[in-house]
Predict the structure.
Amino acid sequence: MIFFDGVCNLCSGTINFLIKIDKRKIFRYSPLQSDFAKEKLHDIDLHVEGYQTIILLLNGSYYFRSEA
């Protein structure tokens, strides 16, 4: 699962690029502003208001910014 800032043009552009190259549809995407993202990220006590970033959730681990 890739969480991204849905109002950040760079983040959204990156996600659009990933969608195009992810031919096997391995990843799922959710804007940080969605209820789903807020619920998932609340589990790790991360409040995402104002974030302009991408967060990767992979096998139960969270990766932030360039780690993602």
In short: The chain has a mean pLDDT of 87.
